[in-house]
Amino acid sequence: MRLPNIARRWLAAIALLMLLLHLSPAHAGKTLDQIRQRAQLVCGVSTGVIGFSSADSQGRWNGLDVDVCRAIAAAVLNDPNKVKYVPLNAQQRFTALQSGEVDLLSRNTTWTLTRDASLGLHFTAVTYYDGQGFLVPKRLKLTSAKQLKNAEICVQSGTTTEKNLSDWFKAQGIKVKPVVFEKFEASIKAFFSGRCQAYTTDASALAFIRSKEAPKPDDYVVLPELISKEPLGPVVRRGDDEWFAIVKWVIFALIEAEEYGITQANLEQMKASPDPAIQRLLGGAEDTGKLLGLERDWAARAVKAVGNYGEMFQRNVGSASPLKLPRGLNALWNKGGLMYAPPVR
Amino acid sequence: MNQIAATQAWLRRNLFSDAFSGLTTLLLLGGAVYWLPGLIDWMLLQAVFEPDAAACQTVNHAGACWGVVAEKYRFILFGRYPHAEQWRPLLATALLLAVIFASGMRLLNRKFLLTAWALALPAFFILMGGGSFGLTPVGSDQWGGLPLTLLLATMGMLLAFPLAIMVALGRQSGLPLLRGLCTLYVELVRGVPLISVLFLASFLFPIILPQGFSIDVLLRVQAGIVLFAAAYLSETIRGGLQAVPGGQHDAAAALGLGRWQAMRWIILPQALRAVVPSMMNSAVSVFKDTSLVTVVSLYELTGSLSLALAGDAEWRSFHLEGYLFIGGIYWIGCYSMSRFSRGMESKVGAGATAM
To answer: How far apart (Å, rounded) are the C-alpha atoms in residues B36 and A154?
Structure first.
């Protein structure tokens, strides 16, 4: 009997190979070392979300999520331009991070328990507090989402939006029919051509969709309810706590810079400030960088690259941007918002 | 007078030969009268051709906004390739297209053609990838748009073809193990959608590979496409092999030809000739299937279009025009392939006379 013999040998070889592969986990190395070695941060971003991450006609990326990448590249590599952006769609984003294709996922991703606990990932910090809302045609004369009984609602798949929609209406005891689309363009096209009675997505996008995508903006209204909490923020892989800490604290530093009034413009003067907190943050009196494995002026570099959190907000999604979103929940904690960073000390 | 009579005769013969064709002609004519003015109005008369977002928004979809193509054509055609270096993909694409065109039109004899391919392919990779001749290196994950589509389709077909022949022959082999392996391969690949092959190649592979050992993402995806196309193509070719009458084998043996010689000179030429139309079918579908690589973050034509528009506040609402633009590119590609196939069929007599 020759054949079974060969087969057995093959099987043994394959089993051995699989064992070997299993024994060496693919990405045990230190993310920071890898980034320094290749002198480039690989950042997973969206395939185009206005204000958060999008490429212009020359292929340059910008947006709030992109600025987070730039700030981290500045803190780690001393150059905000040493970033490679990998555009990822909603379905592939976590796989790309898990497989090590990107160092960091900065792609308006909602922090939820399931994602945090079951995907082998860590959410670092919140960079934008969003919520889900509804856009409806004015002629339906709706004043509340609770009136959407039996309505067909257009929604994009692969995001938390879809689940929030069914959860909220279930809680209200109202039946609705979600009409699911894979692509954003298709979903809004369907809504504006009358396929659905309502369109739902994050509030940060709704106002802009109404003003720019609607054939006649005045024919549509955004309903007042927000049906979900959508804290958006960058995500890293588990198993590298040092890198997790770096990403987290760069974001905290940007928020704290706003709190202390440190801006891109006044950074150099601020370095001479007598305030001990500012001294610590900018690397004057204490070397906080050493604890993170970074240089002394890590936070100052980040602020120099993108400004403080408030400046990032204004430029990308706030009054100086096409989105023109109010600060709202994203104002600092001492100004009525939720942006609160643990102290850099 | 004669002219009119001739015209009438032509009309009757071609457009009104019976009640059904007469009705069809009238329907089509009516459709054209009904739709054409609106279409021309939208496409040309009210259209905006300059890259002027404000003008496009003023027209508000009453006319086409071709300006979006004028503004974004570089992004659409070359994707994420660094903007300053985009002369390289332009040149590389032109080179590859020229060789494909020369092959399709049979402008060169066989020896020159092989040389041309042997020069053009390395040149393509050197231009795109850089790293030598003073060109800055550009990672293959940054390649995008038309060159990527062309590369995936061309290499997909070029490499799948010999593989498919081997698999088709393997499935007819007398060795049970070889036959079984070939059948297993074909059935496995046909049993899963291309999209899952791409996912496997792109995301699962890096996880199971040992650390510090990685294969370029484009290479993995290209391999996936080749394996996928080869499985389908091999069944087409096996169909051709089965269509060759058994007497041909006997005749070849009687001439004293060995097994491989018979295969090379008698069986394969007849088999391949019989399946030119279905092979071209595979080629066209590989060309269009390349658009699926978007799901693994390689941005070929369709991917780079949505990348170019999705996040742009000013231009986002004009994606229809963008899609029409790349639709035109795909149409040109596919139509050229079917023209090539027709030429090929008439040249080799497409099976009809051979059997």
So the answer is: 32
- Pairwise pLDDT comparison (A67 vs B350), residue with the higher score: A67
A31-129+232-335: CATH class: alpha beta
Q: Does B53 touch chain A (CB under 8 A)?
A: no
Q: Which residues contact A195 (CB under 8 A, 6 or more apart)?
A: A152, A154, A179
What is the predicted pLDDT for the residue at A41? Answer: 96
Residue ranges for chain A with pLDDT beneath 50: 1-8, 10-29
Residue B353 has pLDDT above 50, yes or no: no
Q: Which residues of B touch A59 (CB under 8 A)?
A: 75, 80-83
Domain A132-228 belongs in CATH node 3.30.1490.20:
no
Q: A4 CB near a chain B CB, below 8 Å?
A: no
Mean pLDDT value of segment B320-338: 92
A204 to chain B, any CB pair closer than 8 A? The answer is: no
Facing A87 at nearest CB: one of B74, B209, B299: B299
Which residues are bridge partners to A221 per DSSP?
A: A136
Report the sign of the C-alpha dihedral through residues A244, A246, A251, A255, in that order. positive
Q: Which residues of A touch B74 (CB under 8 A)?
A: 57-58
Alpha helices in chain B (DSSP H): 2-14, 19-40, 53-59, 67-78, 87-104, 110-129, 145-171, 176-190, 194-199, 205-208, 217-243, 246-254, 259-262, 268-274, 276-289, 301-310, 319-348
Considering chain B, what is the average pLDDT of its residues?
87
pLDDT of B351 strictly over 60? no
The residues spanned by each domain of chain A are 31-129+232-335, 132-228
Among the listed residues A134, A313, A104, A290, the one whose alpha carbon sits nearest the alpha carbon of residue A210: A134
Average pLDDT, chain A: 87
Interface mutation target, options A61, A86, A156, A185, chain B, most CBs of B under 10 Å: A185
CA distance B313 to B217: 31
pLDDT band at B199 (very low <50, low <70, confident <90, very high): confident
Identify the closest residue of chain B to A63 by CA–CA distance.
Answer: B311
Contacts with A323 from chain B: Cβ below 8 Å: 313
Separation between Cα atoms, residue A243 and residue A29, nearest integer Å = 11
Does A214 touch chain B if contact means CB atoms closer than 8 Å? no
Complex ipTM more than 0.90, yes or no: no
User: What is the pLDDT at residue A91?
Assistant: 75
- Mind listing the pLDDT tens digit for each residue in B238-247? 999 998 888 8
Contact B209 A21 (CB under 8 A): yes
Fold: same for A31-129+232-335 and A132-228: yes
Q: Choose from B207, B209, B292, B305 for mutation: most chain A CBs within 10 A.
A: B207
Q: Say what the pLDDT of residue A169 is.
A: 92
Q: Kindly give the pairing relationship between strand A198-202 and strand A220-222.
A: unpaired
- Position B349 confidence tier, pLDDT thresholds 50, 70, 90: low
* Residue pLDDT, tens place only, B251-301: 988 888 888 888 888 888 889 888 888 888 899 999 999 999 888 778 889
Q: What does the longest C-alpha to C-alpha distance in chain A come to?
A: 87
Interchain CB contact of B83 with A (< 8 Å):
yes
